[in-house]
Write a structure and sequence with these properties.
382 residues, alpha+beta, Ubiquitin-like (UB roll), four-stranded mixed beta sheet, 12 helices, 51% helix, 10% strand, elongated
């Protein structure tokens, strides 16, 4: 019996060199993959290409139109999103040198308010093109220049009348008539008032970087300088007559004047150093200084003290008409002079009350709980 043999499987001869090469290749691939993975992990998240990162709007174009004619004046291009309205004004000034930044008024709408310099331009953007309307604000001056000019004039003008220049008064009459002590006291008080204003302008008040039209300074100077000339002419006149109640009236009025001046100064210092609570500015509160206690009754005590100063000055320098028969022709002259300081004080009270009402409304928006029970300038009345 023949036994059937199974066919033998083909023999596979193994190549030791080939097997070793295959193992080494797979091992190298694994190490390369491991090294690449570690490199990715150590490098962190793969950053997108610059093109993808800056795919959004990078710059704005600001189209500036004339507010009256709506005609295009210029286009300010390549404005970064972080720019402010002031930056746009500087770029506009480079394109149109005749309009420097402080003279440029920009509005988002024709009848809208002027945009503040600190506003971020991105907050105004609806698209990549922003349209603003231009208004020429005219010749501008800084606030410090404004107040220094306004207050220096009265100080110098009054002194010119006080020394009785020959071009203003008759020299024979000036030497003949004796000066009443209230004339010297009035000069001291008047100079003290404006020197205080000048020093506070330089060292106390904190003005913004803004400007005001030159015409406003001209109007302010005309008011203060004109009334100072009118007041000084009568008070320093050789025929000036002292107050009707004499020394007592002058003393009490001068004391009230000095107290109002001191109160005004301390209030201005308190306003300049308002206490800050975080990012919110707090309304000034009374301190141990008695002159600041007026904050309990009114929101603008600096205007209250200013009005009190001029009312006291009016009482202190009261003039009466001469009754001497030789000076009968001067009666009408001194009747008008007795009203000079009073008219100025009355106008100052009206102006101060208007400023106080305006500021009081702003205080109500910012500090309502603290200001709602206070008057603006005069307790109860305003």
């Amino acid at each position: 019996m023949h036994q059937r043999q199974k066919p033998s499987a083909p023999e596979h001869t193994s190549d030791p060199a080939a097997d070793g090469g295959a193992l080494s290749m797979s091992h190298n691939d694994s190490r390369s993959l491991l090294n690449f993975s570690q490199l990715v992990l150590s490098a962190g998240q793969i950053k997108p290409s610059p093109g993808l990162k800056h795919s959004k709007i990078t710059y704005f174009e600001v189209e500036i139109l004339d507010v009256q004619s709506k005609k295009q004046i210029c286009i300010v291009d390549k404005v970064p999103p972080a720019s402010t309205v002031l930056d746009v004004k500087h770029k506009f000034h480079k394109a149109c040198p005749q309009w420097y930044p402080s003279r440029v008024g920009l509005q988002l709408e024709r009848n809208g308010p002027f945009l503040k310099d600190s506003i971020n331009i991105q907050s105004l953007a609806v698209s990549s093109i922003i349209t603003l309307y231009f208004t020429d604000l005219g010749q501008q001056v800084g606030w410090t220049t404004f107040f220094l000019t306004e207050y220096t004039g009265p100080l110098l003008i009054y002194l010119l009348f006080y020394i009785r220049l020959s071009t203003i008064y008759d020299q024979v009459e000036s030497r003949k008539n004796f000066r009443h002590p209230v004339v010297h006291l009035a000069c001291f008080c008047h100079c003290l008032h404006y020197i205080r204003h000048l020093l506070e302008t330089l060292f106390v008040h904190k003005f913004s970087e803004g400007h005001t039209p030159l015409k406003n300074m001209i109007k302010g100077c005309a008011f203060y300088w004109g009334f100072t000339s009118w007041i000084a002419y009568y008070i320093n006149h050789p025929r000036y007559t002292p107050p009707s109640f004499g020394h007592r009236q002058v003393s009490y009025a001068a004391l009230a004047f000095l107290m109002c001046e001191a109160g005004n100064h301390f209030i201005n210092v308190a306003l300049a150093h308002q206490t800050n609570s975080g990012n919110k500015t707090c309304f000034p509160s009374p301190t141990y200084n008695p002159f600041t206690w007026l904050f309990l009754l009114v929101s603008c005590p600096n205007y209250t003290y200013e009005a009190g100063s001029w009312i006291s000055f009016t009482v202190m320098t009261q003039t009466l008409p001469e009754t001497d028969m030789e000076r009968r022709h001067m009666i009408l002259f001194f009747k008008s002079s007795s009203l000079v300081v009073g008219i100025f004080a009355f106008l100052m009270v009206i102006q101060m009350s208007l400023w106080a009402q305006k500021k009081h409304k702003l205080y109500l928006k910012r500090f309502y709980p603290e200001v709602r029970r206070k008057a603006a300038m005069i307790p109860i009345i305003f």
